[in-house]
Amino acid sequence: MGKPLAEFLRRRVYPRQRKLGRVGAAWGEMLPEGLREHTCLEGLARGTLRVLVDDAASLYELRLATEDLLEQLRQACPSAGVSEIHFVRGCW
Known about the structure:
alpha+beta, 4 helices, GMP Synthetase, Chain A, domain 3
């Protein structure tokens, strides 16, 4: 099982991790600290970045800024292919 698992990680997991890592770094630089501490990137699938937000006020503020955030992410990480940001109320 060692070799198939290593191959799976190399082909599937590591590329996604690198992509989300770049998006995460850009996300951390884009948001003001007050908002950043209330968010957690949950995943990136089929162009949709899913972001958990832990309080209603931050969720509202982020939803108002969605288009600007999306444009900034596209400029910072064009290879990530982010086409949509989906904010979800939740804890991590």
